[in-house]
Write a structure and sequence with these properties.
The complex is a heterodimer of chains A (486) and B (96). By secondary structure, chain A is α/β, with parallel strands linked by helices. In chain A, 38% of the residues lie in helices and 12% in strands. In chain A, strand 10 and strand 11 form a beta hairpin. By secondary structure, chain B is mainly alpha-helical. Chain B has a two-stranded antiparallel sheet with strand order 1-2. In chain B, strand 1 and strand 2 form a beta hairpin. In chain B, helix 1 crosses helix 2. Chain B is flat, with a radius of gyration of 22 Å. Classes of the chains: A alpha/beta (486), B mainly alpha (96). The interface between A and B is large, with 77 and 55 residues.
Chain lengths: 486, 96
Amino acid sequence: MSALHELSASEIRRKVVAREVSAEEVAKVHLARLKAVEPKVDAYLLVLEDRALEKARAVDRAFAEGRPAPPLAGVPVAIKDVLDMEGLPTTCGSRILEGYPPPFTATAVARLEAAGALVLGKTNIDEFAMGASTENSAYKKTKNPWDLTRVPGGSSGGSAAAVAARTAPLAFGTDTGGSIRQPAALCGVAGLKPTYGRVSRYGLVAFASSLDQIGPFARSVEDLALAASVVCGHDPLDSTSASLPVPDFTAALTGGARGARIGVPWSFLKEGVDEGQMARFREALSVLEKAGARVVEVDLPHLPHAIATYYIVATAEASSNLARYDGVRYGLRTKDPADLGRLYGETRDRGFGPEVKRRIILGTFVLSSGYYDAYYLRAQKVRTLIRRDFERAFEACDVVATPTSPVPAFRFGEKADNPLQMYLADIFTVPANLAGIPGLSLPCGFAGGLPAGLQLLAKPFDEETLLRLGAAYQAGTDHHLQSPRL
Amino acid sequence: MPKVTVETVDHVARLARLSLTAEERALFARQLDQILEYAESIQALDTSAVEPMSHALTTGAFRADVPREGLARERVLESAPDAKEGLFRVPRVLGG
């Protein structure tokens, strides 16, 4: 039998339900694994050992009393430190929120715990989810479990690394421009960004409100489906959460790929993509073709403008959302400010790191008088054009496929001094956030010892097609079963 | 495209209530200039007949405007750096 920490969430649940292991045993094995590998990986900002063990014993007790096992009974999960848990610190990877204990719990986390999940800890992130390497965390550098000299991707780098390092079979992150899919690809795990509005964002610290979405990381697509079934669905506490029924995502896994039309925007992939990533992408398409899917070419003519559009829209919204960190209501406050203006300015200068400041400046600039029309308003219009590109493409195909990232995991510091280079790492992921559609990244092999990712995008609220094709892909491959040597 | 100068960054930093150091101002001016030069590509598109998109919701986001209990005042003030008598405390704004 494989060690417990090598098992998927679904396998753990089956064993707990069959009483082959207790939830407490599951928690202990994962906490021991965490202690063994965390010094190398640094995925967590906070480990909740006692809380996880207590929760595990509660799951075991309820089960012993004859109550039915909930869908995530005894499944360890790691949570990106941008989702609130009442009374525990939420840092968002920022000094400005150091020591802030939120007075509420995010709906997504509450649903996971109600479903029997064991929260092992809060994971490292790029400050306020701004970044593609997790290097912008004010607290620590998370390493890529496949090569400790390289970044895990970002901004949910801690969650991706936690799943890759087998400290948790399941983790949650957020995706504003690729922050689930890109680190999933770079760490060789699977990640799902659901449709905008699919998951309640109550208790999620806002970055760019028209783009942010919460979603799961796991190794298998089956686990993503299981996790999505738990967290998706309307929440009266978030008016942007969709009032649509949540399908049985697990039931969607069995359909296979036969007859599916996979659209590839070949002209957009012509340049700038690493050779190894491209080779694995082509092989992944062949796997899906062997499973009965058909690859067609689609044209998404406005995608070359997606990064520009994204960095205008996202920074504009961020500059507004981050105005709340003023040293008055929570978090850091500068010592003995001379007046209220200096209290704001000095607190923000000390509390925010360079990338957050850069984005606040850019966002404030594109919204400022004289530049609003040329930048912000124009970007919103180009966003419409990008969304229309996808609507047209989905008339000819069921999913759009691209590599998830143009490059494999890069070395620490490699892009840190050039913000534009870092932004370009998001080139294949930002379009889905702009269009509001769901996206899935799957591990599709290795190039030079580093993981590659396959991205599939679907129509709004059609996560089922992503999961069905993802399951068909994983049925024909074993990339998701590969473990890094730690 | 107008060149982003240190003065531009100064002006925007004031709007955003950020006290930046001289080095930060110079660095951000240079980097913003690069980023906006890259973003210049969208200026060439014809968007005259295109509606701006402010969100990606495909379903309505309206709810009934019904009052409900919020968080307890004491609980909220627990997170504040400085509070007194049920209020957030800040340096004096009016008078001497």
